Amino acid sequence: MRYLVTGAAGFIGAAVSEALLARGDSVLGIDNLNDYYAVSLKEARRNRVAARFPDGFVFRQIDFADHLAMGEALAGEQFDRIIHLGAQPGVRYSLENPRAYIEANVSGHLNMLELARERQVQHMVYASSSSVYGGAEKVPFSVDDRVDHPLSLYAATKKADELMSETYAHLYRIPLTGLRFFTVYGPWGRPDMMVWLFTQKILAGDPIPVFNSGEVWRDFTYIDDIVAGVLASVDHVPADDGTVKAGGSTKPHAIYNIGNHACEKLTDVIEVLEEACGKKAVLDLLPMQPGDVPRTFADIDAIRADLGYAPTTSVDVGIPRFVDWYRDYHGM
Questions:
Q1: How many angstroms separate the most distant Cα atoms in the chain?
Q2: pTM of the model
Q3: 81 within domain boundaries
Q4: Of 36, 154, 222, 256, which is the active-site residue?
């Protein structure tokens, strides 16, 4: 089977592409290679996948937010299913550059839905986010909870993606699955994410910003567990049978949380990082950031029941793996 994977040079996209290829599928990967963070890291991920699977992996530098350019670039290309992981990420950056989120996450998502409709693909899996839960006090967060009060534009765009997908599943009966990712980390991760930033600063002896004076909890999910969930999701096509799917839709549209089902206090995770780095952190205690949330915690009952998803990697295991990779990547 051939998959179109967007964001194929991104953290999750490259890992998913590699896993698909390893099981014998082929991948058409697209990414615009923008400079939100170091392009060299994106190129290194892409090159790693291409080197391992030169026959099964095709890469095109395409901006899916530009529907005309994407249409021209994909003319003649065949694919059976879509895994749409490309997006403009980051809660804090959405305060600085809001239009980038509308272009990539709203217009871009519409373009992917239109592509799925035009090509009549078997299934499209797309990335949502735990950010849609906003400042919800009920934990763990369930896909059956209402998510009407986003605290950032990034979260609002991801909720918009889910709503547009529901509409397309209704109008055109396109099988769709949305995945709400919870704080993904691991080797080949993103430099704007907490685990990378804190590792970098601890090793350099720089203070690390600890928001809400450390009263922050996150459901940290290791990349291998995320990949397992994505593959299980794309292999399970929501049926157009009128039954209620995860997330509440009666259309061929399911929504799942992909998390570790563990709510870790930030200060405890910092201690794991200190142990892995072999160095104490210098803490810079700060108030809560605008748009940020104090707690995330995934209820994974739906994805466990439907797809057999079972995360296996705790932060005690995953964070040392990341630190080892970080040292190796930077030649430390």
A1: 57
A2: 0.96
A3: yes
A4: 154
Rounded CA gap, 124 and 80, in Å?
9
Nearest-angstrom CA–CA distance, 292 and 38:
24
Could you read off the pLDDT tens digit of each residue along the chain, which spans 332 residues?
999 999 999 999 999 999 999 999 999 999 999 999 999 999 999 999 999 999 999 999 999 999 999 999 999 999 999 999 999 998 888 888 999 999 999 999 999 999 999 999 999 999 999 999 988 888 899 999 999 999 999 999 999 999 999 999 999 999 999 999 999 999 999 999 999 999 999 999 999 988 887 788 899 999 999 999 999 999 999 999 999 999 999 999 999 999 999 889 899 999 999 999 999 999 887 887 776 777 888 999 999 999 999 999 999 999 999 999 999 999 98
Query: In terms of C-beta density within 10 A (0-12 exposed, 13-18 middle, 19 or more buried), how is residue 241 classed?
Result: exposed
**What is residue 144's DSSP assignment?**
T
Could you tell me the CATH number of the domain that includes residue 249? Answer: 3.40.50.720
Instruction: Say whether 324 sits in a helix, a strand or coil.
Output: helix
- Whole-angstrom CA distances from 203 to 1, 159, 328, 330 are 43, 37, 13, 12
Q: How far apart are alpha carbons 17 and 29 in whole angstroms?
A: 8
168 is catalytic: no
306 lies in some domain: yes
| CB-CB neighbours of 279 under 10 Å | 13
**Residue 55 belongs to a domain:** yes
Residue 64, domain extent? 2-182+222-261+297-311
